């Protein structure tokens, strides 16, 4: 049965790879990346055999703890890691609970992250190759630690799916969990500047972690090497107890998950509440705009794109603390860029729901206009406020006209570019109701390719106002900034209208083909 | 006598002026498979037309092409004299569609979704509001009008999709599996609405697997298999004395008369 589960996992992987070349390419890249990491860490670990035991201990315990923590936390961010063997899909089969546990654990191991984790963990034995007995212990501890990683991540997944089978909770949880990731940059910057002065604190941290479930097992070999068999035994016990506890937790929550089907808690708005549909003009384009805006607020996949809006100024403010206030001025243009290109995946998110719109016979131009208007209704004010705000903080008011021209130019031109490109290209996106951070396998590569192409085109289109703003700010000739403002608004509006018309014409011409693409994407 | 169409010389055959939907020589290929293979069909105005066929017969593909959602490889389709693929916008105004297996904008409430569909076709707000009220009442969805469609049951989702298809008062209704997972009471209500619509001059095309239902509800029927029309005409013509289900099985074939494998005989 366990073998069957494993075979099922591999079969699903194979079939999904055969279905799309891009997915195959992406998985191959992932595998190469994994092999690179494995290779590097193995060499590093073997090289540690040449340094004092204390340093080796610090490195191994810290890295190992981070590894375990990563395995436990990542499922919270990306529920899409391995859905092929979701308990919910196996509910109907009469599989004994313990068999299911073993099958799921092993299937978690099959895959690039699992294999790399296991092999890299085993490579910790390489650090002790001069002491075969300790190397043996290290291998054993590493295997247990790798098992802890996988069981831990499974336990967290199952536990969270029991708590979060309601749609709303699931959507919100994945959403909030990403914020720390965005703030990772500043955290690392401040930590690394701190670390440089406090390298001495690291061994202390490692020693502390060695007494926690995260680092206990990793510390056992160096305990022995340092001649503390008593501590080694205690750390080993902590590690094994952790694994057993996690197993128990996972077993219980899995048993619970198997008899608790996913349910949805629905909430009613009360009738007669049309929301945005009642506020936008009662025209086809107005209806599209109102619907789009509703989705921006209500569909977490859209809302995720808005998450960067408050974070960009926060990041820039942090980086410019050291007096580089010019950096702060880039907030407006960056937010304009990210926001305006975010309707790029609009149609992909909608999927076959787009059929409703096609069968209504709406003109392509109205569709494009509505979507651009929805985004513009909140995007343009944000861009303008951010531009003015950044100048307000930096105090260099003379650059404001050029900066405004650039931000508005980027935003409007970006709307034009994405209005056209999104009528042509369908990119793989997570389905409605999925975790918004889940990536369809291979999506990263395709999306990155198309995104960079779009950015390149946009970069060329906004060149006039960019040059005017930069030269104006650098030379201090204020009139250049004012010209930049006029050019930005005029050129941007022109490009937006052009993009909407071209995109609309493209939709009128090829909407059925686009729908076919969208339907195939599921 | 069932009227057999597939072998008739289609290009020269004139299109009956009273037809709500006329299909001539329709082809659609998906990879290696001819999903629709030289299909011709006439649906008279004012008829309640059933489209039946085994799984994968090409019903959904045909209906998608007839409603302007999927481009045919060859063939002509006219709706009330309007060539669908030459005049998409005009054709789409004439027809209301309930597609099977297509997502809805399910983050809208039921009321918002129907309103949205109405506004998209260019109607003014008071008209839309009035029709949305009527439709929600007719389909017993008033209580759920403020709930997000994503939280609807399968049957309710079908009903709200039907409301979206009806809101712009089309002359032809194309319904793909409209009664799937709809409860008997709602199904009866929907049937009443559709009968009323037909008796007032509208035309309804439904695809279905439920032979009993088609025999009771429809006045015309076409049997489709492997992308071709095997028989078409009034229900009585097609079934010719036996039940529609027996006639269907006879036409389509593939019925097994075994009792199932040995191991499945429980006692």
What string, H for helix and E for strand, traces the elements of chain A in order? HHHHHHHHHHHHHHHHHHHHHHHH
Q: Mean pLDDT score of chain A, rounded?
A: 80
Describe the strand arrangement of the main beta sheet of chain B, using strand numbers.
6-7-8-3-9-10
Unreliable spans of chain A are none
Helix content of chain B: 25-40%
Number of strands of chain A: 0
Helix/strand order of chain B, N-terminal first: EEEHEEHEHHHEHEHEEHH
Distance between the termini of chain B: 45 Å
- Name the poorly predicted regions of chain B: 1-12
Molecular structure report:
- The complex is a heterodimer of chains A (522) and B (267).
- Chain A has 522 residues and is mainly α.
- Chain A has helices spanning 2-19, 21-47, 53-77, 87-90, 97-109, 112-122, 132-163, 167-177, 179-182, 184-197, 201-209, 216-225, 229-258, 284-298, 300-306, 308-319, 331-340, 346-350, 354-359, 364-394, 400-421, 443-461, 463-475, 478-520.
- In chain A, α1 (2-19) packs across α5 (97-109), α16 runs antiparallel to α17 and α23 runs antiparallel to α24.
- Chain A is globular.
- Chain A starts with a helix and ends with a helix.
- The relative contact order of chain A is 0.09.
- The mean pLDDT of chain A is 80.
- Chain B is of the alpha/beta class and 267 residues long.
- Helix content of chain B is 34%, strand content 24%.
- Chain B has 9 helices and 10 strands.
- In chain B, β4 (74-79) and β5 (82-83) form a beta hairpin.
- In chain B, α3 (110-120) packs across α4 (125-138) and α3 (110-120) packs parallel to α5.
- Chains A and B meet through α14, α19 and α24 of A and α2, α3 and α4 of B.
